[in-house]
């Protein structure tokens, strides 16, 4: 049941000052302004977050929760963008595009990983922000941990030079393509377009601009043993691609209730051949332009063995 693709533990950051980030509105077409006062919106986001954690833990997923008390980090609920973890004990820390998102990096999270898991090295790319470079983690890259492929949409959140450097360090093959929404706007993060499970992949192939590249991506997914579940643009707008497979009491696919509602019965049946969909209700959090996958920083590290005193 254990899968290299589906981690059994995640880091989540509890957002006490949640709001739509004005610094990311320019290129995140999924972002909308929530209705209500700032206090109401923040309280709704907290309630949604706590319910999501309870649901994940109830399904057998180990969730490490960190509280964010800063007023300067409105997107802190999306920690998958600033760090990632990898089998063999490797951790990457990433440079962020928006200035206020750079404040989300927390070394207490990295210290928890070192205490509880076998961490061999931490490669910190964040200093490259000073050179105007960004690579926003598993938002910018959708990683196939089995086939060692980093699927990456061209955007200002994924510098090509830095992507090559990451792939060299972490032994991934970069697969880069251009993707746009129905209005012709660039897709800002790859993980709103696609998600890869152990035996299937969710992806909107129509959004890949170049037909040849579109065929290449579908072929690579199938070559690595994935059944391709082709999503529509409308389903992507409802965050159906922004999902993460996890290992709990059984293999599950964590996604939002809105995303699950957008899927057709035949698509759900395809997922259910190898994972049980686990919907989380997060409508307020989704107004920030991200969904369930963005909230989950998967831990692909080996736990340390605990010795009794």
What structural keywords apply?
single chain; 309 residues; alpha/beta; L-arginine/glycine Amidinotransferase, Chain A; 3-stranded mixed sheet; 15 strands; Amidinotransferase
Brief overview:
With 309 residues, the protein is of the alpha/beta class.
Report what the structure shows:
GO terms for molecular function: transferase activity. InterPro entries: Amdntrnsf_FN0238. This is Amidinotransferase. The structure is a single chain. The chain has helices spanning 38-58, 107-116, 137-140, 160-170, 211-223, 233-237, 257-262, 265-272, 283-286, 292-295; strands at 9-15, 62-68, 83-86, 90-93, 121-124, 141-144, 149-153, 173-177, 194-196, 200-203, 227-230, 244-247, 251-256, 276-280, 297-298. The chain is α/β, with parallel strands linked by helices and 309 residues long. A 3-stranded mixed β-sheet has the order 2-1-15. The chain has a 3-stranded mixed β-sheet with strand order 3-4-5, with no helix packed on it. Strands 6-7-8 form a 3-stranded mixed β-sheet, sandwiched between helices. β1, α1 and β2 form a beta-alpha-beta unit. The longest helix has 21 residues, at 38-58. The relative contact order is 0.19. The model has no long low-confidence stretch (mean pLDDT 91).
């Amino acid at each position: 049941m254990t899968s290299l693709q589906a981690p059994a533990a995640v880091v989540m950051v509890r957002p006490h000052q949640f709001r739509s980030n004005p610094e990311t509105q320019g290129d995140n077409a999924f972002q909308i302004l929530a209705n209500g006062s700032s206090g109401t919106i923040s309280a709704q986001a907290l309630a949604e977050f706590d319910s999501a954690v309870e649901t994940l833990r109830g399904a057998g997923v180990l969730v490490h929760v960190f509280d964010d008390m800063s007023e300067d980090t409105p997107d802190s609920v999306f920690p998958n963008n600033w760090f990632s973890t990898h089998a063999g004990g490797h951790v990457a820390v990433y440079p962020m595009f928006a200035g206020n998102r750079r404040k989300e990096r927390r070394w207490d999270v990295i210290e928890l990983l070192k205490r509880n898991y076998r961490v061999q090295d931490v490669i910190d790319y964040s200093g490259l922000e000073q050179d105007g470079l960004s690579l926003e983690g598993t938002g910018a890259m959708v990683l196939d941990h089995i086939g060692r492929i980093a699927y990456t949409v061209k955007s200002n959140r994924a510098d090509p030079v830095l992507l090559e450097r990451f792939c060299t360090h972490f032994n991934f093959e970069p697969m880069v393509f251009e993707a746009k929404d129905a209005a012709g706007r660039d897709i800002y993060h790859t993980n709103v377009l696609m998600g890869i499970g152990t035996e299937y992949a969710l992806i909107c192939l129509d959004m890949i601009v170049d037909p040849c590249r579109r065929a290449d991506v579908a072929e690579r997914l199938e070559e690595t043993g994935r059944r391709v579940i082709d999503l529509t643009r409308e389903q992507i707008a409802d965050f159906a691609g922004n999902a993460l497979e996890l290992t709990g009491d059984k293999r599950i696919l964590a996604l939002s209730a809105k995303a699950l509602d957008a899927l057709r019965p035949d698509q759900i049946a395809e997922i259910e051949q190898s994972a049980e969909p686990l919907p989380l209700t997060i409508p307020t959090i989704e107004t920030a332009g991200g969904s369930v996958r963005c909230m989950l920083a998967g831990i692909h590290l080996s736990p340390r063995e605990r010795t009794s005193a």
